[in-house]
Amino acid sequence: MEDNLSETLAFLRARLNAKPEIGMITGTGLGALTERITGEVRIPFEEIPHFPRSTVEGHKGNLAFGNIAGRPIIAMEGRVHLYEGYSPQEVTFPVRVMAGLGVRYLLMSSAAGGLNPQFDRGDLMIVTDHINLKGSNPLTGPNLDRFGPRFPDMSQAYPKDLIRIAKEEAVQSGMMIRQGVYVGVLGPSLETPAETRFLRMIGADAVGMSTVSQTIVAVHCGLRVLAIAVITNVNLPDCMERTSVEDVIEASRKASGVLSDLWERIIARLPGQ
């Protein structure tokens, strides 16, 4: 891991004109914000040494550098998942890279299934906490001491001041915003009615197959995390409806413009150095 990181960082530093301050990861159908990057440089994942490649529909698979709201950012247009066959360490390798480049904030968008019956399709949910049901943790194995401690504290994985900024910007722009707990599952199969009932019973408001592993590694690296999920469908266990990846992508794309506006406002508000 250390050797791979060093090689990847050397490759990227040779192509950057500025040190990125903010890292972003966009999920299924949610790449509209990166189209607003000015002075951008885009590098396909497959050209970056040791970088995992996305195999999922709706993920462009580029690393973009530039500015949004006058702030230097590095953004993943798409992500990789455990269900694609990658290890937890491979899935979170890009977060290590961002931390190595000097990023202080990690902002993540994802598509998620709603579990809270008060949610509607197309809602945006600020993640206030998470439950890891992926069956793995990306910090297993030797600890990377230069990034963080062996046992990182997760009591404030999603800082309250960043959540407050997101809420305030949503309210000021007149958009509906939800808050809730995100439960991360392995996938790729979607949930059964019984699983949906269980996930709601343990306190989850939305379910997805990303975000959690990246947050754990980001916290280990000392990054400040803000995550917003698009509710692409609502799972009610007593009247489950069929869901396809095409439905998820379409719902994500419809919400992408509104979410991009919100992210741009949030980025402008983030405390500087």
Keywords:
25% strand, alpha/beta, 7 helices, 273 residues, Rossmann fold, globular
Question: If you had to describe this structure to a student in words, what would you say it looks like?
Answer:
This protein is α/β, with parallel strands linked by helices. It has a single domain, classed as Nucleoside phosphorylase domain (Rossmann fold, 3-Layer(aba) Sandwich), CATH 3.40.50.1580. Helix content is 29%, strand content 25%. It has helices at 2-13, 88-91, 93-100, 160-172, 193-201, 212-220, 245-269, and strands spanning 22-26, 38-44, 62-68, 71-77, 105-114, 124-133, 178-185, 206-208, 224-234. The model has no long low-confidence stretch (mean pLDDT 91).
Gyration radius over CA: 17 Å
Question: Which spans have pLDDT < 50 for at least 5 consecutive residues?
Answer: none
Number of helices: 7
Q: Report the top-level CATH class.
A: Alpha Beta
- CATH fold-level label: Rossmann fold
Distance between the termini: 29 Å
Task: Summarize the helices and strands and which ones pair or pack.
Blueprint: H1 2-13, E1 22-26, E2 38-44, E3 62-68, E4 71-77, H2 88-91, H3 93-100, E5 105-114, E6 124-133, H4 160-172, E7 178-185, H5 193-201, E8 206-208, H6 212-220, E9 224-234, H7 245-269
Parallel strand pairs: 1-4, 1-5, 5-9, 6-7, 7-8
Antiparallel strand pairs: 2-3, 3-4, 5-8, 6-9
